[in-house]
Every structure is written in structure tokens, then in C-alpha cells.
Amino acid sequence: MLPCVIQIQRHENGSIQPALDVLRRLVVALSVSADMLVFDRNERRPDEDLKLTFEA
């Protein structure tokens, strides 16, 4: 298996975390925002309690 494939698998299964500079390069290369890479779709918005706190 190619070394880059093994590295990607490690990131995907959570055994390693990418460094910030790696994350920046991925964001630029993929033309996406960092939150799209870091968070699941449902995690990109504050929960209702946090939202109410900010609105208050």
C-alpha cells in the first residue's frame, strides 16, 4: 500500500491528528473551509442552549 494512503487512513480512523499546517494545505488543495474537514455536518452549528446564551 502507498505511504500516502496509509497516512490518510490514519487520519480517517482517528489514530493521528493532522498538524495545523497540514490542515491548511488540505483546505487550500480541496477548496473547502476548515470546518467542513473538521466537523460533521450536524456539528457546524451551535446547539440550541449555546444559541440561546448568545442571543441573551
Give a short overview:
Helices cover 61% and strands 0% of the residues. It is mainly α and 56 residues long.
Structure, explained:
It is a single chain. The chain has 56 residues and is mostly helical. Helices cover 61% and strands 0% of the residues. The protein is elongated.
Distance between the termini: 53 Å
Class inferred from helices and paired strands: mainly alpha
Low-pLDDT runs of 5+ residues are: none
Counted beta strands = 0
**Any idea how many domains?**
1
State the order of secondary-structure elements, H for helix, E for strand: HHHH
Would you tell me the overall average pLDDT? 83
Biggest pleated sheet = none
Work out the radius of gyration.
15 Å
**How much beta, percentage-wise?**
under 5%
Shape: elongated
Count of helical regions: 4
Percent of residues in helices: 55-70%
Task: Identify the notable features of this structure and list them briefly.
56 residues; mainly alpha; 4 helices
Layout: helices, strands, pairs:
Blueprint (H helix, E strand, L loop, with lengths): L2 H10 L7 H11 L3 H5 L9 H8 L1
